[in-house]
Specification:
The structure holds two protein chains of two kinds.
Chain A (H helix, E strand, L loop, with lengths): L1 E12 L6 E13 L4 E6 L5 H9 L6 E6 L2 E2 L5 H11 E4 L11 H12 L3 H14 L15 H13 L5 E5 L7 H18 L2 E5 L3 H4 L4 E6 L2 E7 L2
Helix pairs in contact in A: 3-4, 3-5, 4-5
Chain B lengths: L2 H14 L1 H38 L5 E9 L2 E3 L3 H8 L4 E9 L5 E4 L2 E4 L2 E4 L1 H7 L3 E4 L7 E4 L8 E2 L4 H4 L20 E10 L2 E15 L12 E3 L1 H11 L23 E6 L2 H13 L2 E5 H44 L1 H10 L3 H46 L14 H27 L3 H6 L3
Parallel strand pairs in B: 6-12, 8-11
Antiparallel strand pairs in B: 1-2, 1-13, 1-14, 3-6, 3-13, 4-5, 4-10, 5-9, 7-11, 8-12, 10-11
Helix pairs in contact in B: 1-10, 2-8, 2-10, 2-11, 8-10, 8-11, 10-11
Classes of the chains: A alpha/beta, B alpha+beta.
Bound molecules: adenosine-5'-triphosphate and magnesium ion (MG).
The site of adenosine-5'-triphosphate has 13 residues of chain A, from strand 1, strand 2 and helix 1.
């Protein structure tokens, strides 16, 4: 499903004439199968977010290739990647990234709007998806009127609504208390079980990493440990 | 993304910054109003002047004053008339010979004078001569008189001081007030013989009165006589065309005799141009309204283009406002744009949304600006004549309009407004597509 081959990422730091190179990812290669939940762990600054941002297409790798569904996405231009994301990848972010001027309903509806799904078909889908994350009664709340856990569930609903085969999550429980964290994790497992969605989850929390059936550990941009959990 | 959804986005975004959008639309509308009102003066004056030009003359008419042969000017004679009449598209060629003296005409105890011409009636009829009364002459001693001929007759024995009112018109009580058709009039011609003035009278019958000239201030007191009457006059005076033996004005030589007034009538305005060009090539002296109109048109086209150019500057100034508004809108929405891109919004869609927004401002500005311009134009047209008659005591000619807004002007200004607003929205819209997803999403943390 996802195949990462010899991925390198280097950032240029400092002012123009006095630049230093910072290699954040060094020859990273791994494979994620359909239906996996892969946990990516590592210390802060080890390059986890960078890896996920490359897979999500938010930046271009300095070297190496990424295949998703057998397509070499590292060669996509920005527009092609946008369309690809809209079809294949859902995102869950640590700080939710909801549009503050839109209600929960409108935020969840947004991917369908971008896809061009007619208004008449959208309504049912949005209501069903909000119900799935247990927020049927909160459609007309703005993000500022929701708790952290509720906001994260809205963002999960937004990722789910396009029924993507892959969901990328960067610290999905990072802003939540431990009880809500448990709810969200259980929900992720349920989605994986019921719909076969492949998850790639970044976390520095071992407990969170436990829900994965695979785990890679990054240290200074290198995979130092790769294991099949449980 | 459907157009309906894009439109919904635009409307929602605009609602969020209502007052800013309002001010921008206002500035754009003012620019459009300025352009239209400014240029409308050019259009209005052009229309009015063309109308003035066309009012007193038939548009299809061309004066053919003469012909240049071997460097010398020559009046038109029957030889050229034949050539002129055979030109394709020429409806009629009227020709008149003027009597070289102004006879006085008497009826009962009234008298008056009028220029006397010999005209060729078949061509005059074809050219559109119409009678308001009576019919065409049936014999040589019947005449047609101009519409105002009768009004110009007055009682013979009244002192000049008493005869005219303060406007220089003949007082009503001394005017000839009956219908002149069918009446017999005496034409008195004179000639100097051995230093003494001799008089000769010819009896004529008025068979018809011509229709009034197109403009109400024009006075037509002409008397149309026949060739036979002219011959009788010439017999008495012993000179061609009844000229008086005036030592100051030597008689013309026989060869140069020709028609004093030759007017060609074309089938249409377009033909006037081709015919008059052709005649000019053949060394005719031709003058037509079309000549004057094309000069006027050139001048006004340049003037209008200049006014539109100045007006465009106003819209360009307004476009700076649009640029600012759109740049602010993009900056404010950077985070939303980042999130939308992260989810999978194609940069093209984002660009479109912003372009729709700036175009919408342009469209609103154009509509409001045009509406206001129409209102101002109506006020100007109503107000200017009042101001002119109030301040200077002069009346503008009827139907004179200072400002006119034809559809072409509305189309031009709308096009300029849209082009300028879309151009000024392009850069902010491109900036929106270049928003970096990661930077935009990191902002809030
Ligand atoms: N756009 C960038 N430009 C320059 N350096 C960057 C950029 N993004 C990340 N880095 C650097 O790359 C390194 C890895 O960052 P990354 O965000 O991938 O870490 P992480 O593993 O996600 O850490 P955390 O657990 O704190 O989120 C860091 O040293 C960071 O400073
Ligand atoms: Mg991170």
């Amino acid at each position: 499903m996802i195949e990462v081959k010899g991925l390198n990422q280097t950032f240029m730091l400092g002012k123009k004439h006095n630049q230093t190179k910072l290699q954040v990812l060094k020859d990273v290669s791994f494979t994620v199968e359909k239906g996996d939940i892969m946990a990516i762990t590592g210390r802060s600054g080890s390059g986890k977010s960078t890896l996920l941002n490359l897979i999500g297409g938010f930046m271009k790798p300095s070297g190496g290739q990424i295949f998703i569904n057998n397509q070499n996405v590292s060669e996509f231009n920005e527009g092609e990647f946008s369309d690809f994301r809209l079809q294949h990848i859902g995102f869950i972010f640590q700080n939710f990234q909801l549009i503050t001027s839109m209600t929960a309903y409108e935020n969840v509806e947004l991917p369908l709007v971008l896809k061009g799904v007619p208004e008449t078909q959208r309504n049912e889908l949005v209501i069903n998806t909000l119900a799935k994350v247990g927020l049927a009664d909160y459609q007309n709340h703005y993000p500022s009127e929701l708790s952290g856990g509720q906001q994260q569930r809205v963002s999960i609903a937004r990722a789910l609504i396009i029924e993507p085969p892959i969901i990328l999550a960067d610290e999905p429980t990072g802003s939540l208390d431990s009880e809500t964290e448990q709810d969200v994790l259980a929900f992720i497992q349920q989605l994986n079980r019921d719909y076969g969605i492949t998850f790639l989850i970044i976390t520095h929390d071992e407990e969170v990493a436990q829900i994965g059936n695979k785990q890679i550990h990054l240290h200074d941009g290198k995979i130092v440990k790769e294991e099949l959990a449980r | 993304m459907t157009w309906k959804d894009k439109w919904r986005f635009v409307r929602k975004n605009m609602k969020k910054s209502k007052s800013r959008i309002f001010m921008t639309v206002l500035a754009t509308a003012m620019g459009v109003t300025f352009l239209i009102v400014l240029a409308s003066v050019g259009f209005g004056l052009h229309d009015s002047i063309i109308k003035e030009q066309l009012q007193d003359r038939a548009v299809t008419q061309m004066e053919i004053a003469g012909l240049e042969t071997e460097g010398a000017f020559q009046l038109i004679t029957d030889k050229q008339i034949e050539e002129l009449e055979n030109i394709e598209g020429m409806r009629a060629v009227t020709r008149r010979v003027e009597l070289q003296q102004t006879p006085s005409f008497q009826i009962e105890d009234y008298e008056g004078s009028g220029s006397t011409v010999v005209a060729h009636f078949p061509s005059e009829i074809e050219a559109g001569l119409e009678l308001s009364e009576g019919k065409l002459p049936e014999n040589d001693h019947q005449v047609i008189v101009g519409h105002h001929f009768a009004q110009n007759l007055h009682q013979a024995n009244v002192e000049p001081d008493e005869l005219y009112n303060e406007n220089g018109e003949i007082k009503d009580e001394y005017q000839y007030s009956e219908s002149i058709v069918g009446k017999e009039i005496e034409m008195m011609i004179t000639q100097m013989v051995d230093g003494e003035e001799q008089q000769h009278s010819i009896s004529l019958t008025v068979s018809g009165v011509a229709e009034a000239p197109a403009r109400d201030w024009m006075i037509d007191t002409t008397v149309f006589i026949s060739e036979a009457v002219l011959a009788e006059v010439e017999e008495f005076t012993g000179t061609p065309r009844g000229a008086r033996n005036d030592p100051d004005y030597p008689l013309p030589e026989e060869e140069t005799l020709g028609y004093h007034q030759v007017i060609g009538y074309a089938d249409s305005l377009e033909e006037v141009e081709t015919i008059s060009d052709m005649l000019k090539e053949k060394n005719y002296y031709v003058y037509s309204v079309a000549d004057e109109l094309s000069q006027i048109n050139v001048i006004f086209t340049i003037a209008k283009a200049g006014l539109i150019f100045i007006g465009t500057i106003a819209i360009i100034i307004a476009s700076i406002g649009i640029y600012n508004t759109m740049t602010m809108a993009v900056t404010e929405r950077t985070q939303d744009i980042g999130i939308m891109k992260a989810i999978g919004a194609h940069p093209k869609k984002i660009k479109q949304i912003f372009l729709i927004e700036s175009s919408y401002i342009g469209v609103l500005g154009a509509i409001i600006g045009t509406a206001v311009a129409y209102a101002i134009s109506i006020l100007v047209n109503a107000g200017i004549p009042l101001i002119i008659s109030g301040a200077m005591g002069e009346e503008l000619p009827e139907g004179f309009q200072f400002s006119a807004i034809p559809w072409s002007l509305v189309a031009i200004s709308t096009a300029i407004c849209l082009i300028v607003t879309i151009l000024s929205g392009l850069k902010p819209a491109r900036r929106a597509t270049q928003v970096d997803v990661l930077k935009a999403m990191r902002r809030e943390i």
